[in-house]
Amino acid sequence: MNTRLFGEIDIQKDKVICFENGIIGFPDYKEYALIYDSEKKDKKGVSWLQCLEDEVFALPVIDPLSVKPDYAPDIDEELLKPLGELNAENTYVLVTLTATGKKEDITVNLKAPIIINTDTKKAIQVIAEGDYPVKYKIYDKLKEKAGE
């Protein structure tokens, strides 16, 4: 697959993440691959959900705990049933990131987390209950974490 952001990539079938209902706003795109920065030793920081049905479409995502350590959204368990059995070892939570020019304006969407079952490779984006912002500014949090 020749992607806009990453050029030519080869995705192994066992790495494909399936969103049965697509992602909010993109219901027709169901298959994605999580692309990490190959230069990094760990999977912290920004990664990308690359759509496998459209080489142009990729979403930047980040682990919400890296910018909001107390993030613990309340999610209706019925919504998570299609993912299969979830536990602490196989549950991976991500939030989408938006950058619109100035780095100080970078935000994440804490209201609509992406939940991935790493065993089944099934995922869903849900609307979290409670008062979580759609645009949570993270620049200061990232600076603080980097010790600047």
From TrEMBL:
Q: Self-association or partners: how does it assemble?
A: Interacts with translational regulator CsrA and flagellin(s).
Task: State where it is primarily located.
Answer: cytoplasm
Q: Where are the transmembrane segments?
A: none
Family assignment from sequence similarity: Belongs to the FliW family.
Q: What is the lineage of its organism?
A: Bacteria, Bacillati, Bacillota, Clostridia, Lachnospirales
Q: Which superkingdom, per the lineage? A: Bacteria
What role does this protein play? Acts as an anti-CsrA protein, binds CsrA and prevents it from repressing translation of its target genes, one of which is flagellin. Binds to flagellin and participates in the assembly of the flagellum.
What is the protein's given name?
Flagellar assembly factor FliW
InterPro entries from the UniProt entry:
Flagellar_assembly_factor_FliW (IPR003775), Flagellar_assmbl_FliW_dom_sf (IPR024046)
Name its cellular compartments: Cytoplasm
Alphabetized, the UniProt keywords read: Bacterial flagellum biogenesis, Cell projection, Chaperone, Cilium, Cytoplasm, Flagellum, Translation regulation
Q: Organism source for this protein?
A: Roseburia yibonii
